[in-house]
């Protein structure tokens, strides 16, 4: 049996989409100021996420646990040598105005 998850949508413009949210069973949670829907299948969550992306709304899914995300490891991705190389001193060309005055 597929795992059911929670889906929440929010954003400054979510007010203008309230009829769509109501039609799809979302309830407005005043404490978090989000439109929330519980026990959603993964396919439904993907459809809702596509809608939110299309209209620029932010959304949260309970299966995307961002608190456990390791940002440092994500940024480095094991390519430390690429970022730790010393930079070369570049020789900049002298402007034509300086060459003519000499």
Question: Care to describe what's here?
Answer:
It contains 5 helices and 4 strands. By secondary structure, it is an alpha+beta fold. It has a 4-stranded antiparallel beta sheet. It has helices at residues 18-23, 42-55, 71-76, 80-83, 96-101; strands at residues 5-10, 27-29, 34-40, 58-61. The mean pLDDT is 82.
Estimate the global geometry from the Cα principal axes: elongated
The span between the termini is 82 Å
What class do helices, strands and sheet pairing give? Answer: alpha+beta
Q: For the CA atoms, what is the radius of gyration?
A: 25 Å
Mean pLDDT score? 82
Order of helices and strands: EHEEHEHHH
**Could you list the spans in which at least 5 consecutive residues all have pLDDT below 50?**
none
Name the beta content range: 15-25%
- The percent range for helix content is 25-40%
Largest β sheet strand count, sense and barrel closure: 4 strands, antiparallel
Beta-strand segment tally: 4
Largest sheet, spatial ordering of strands: 2-3-1-4
User: How many DSSP helices?
Assistant: 5
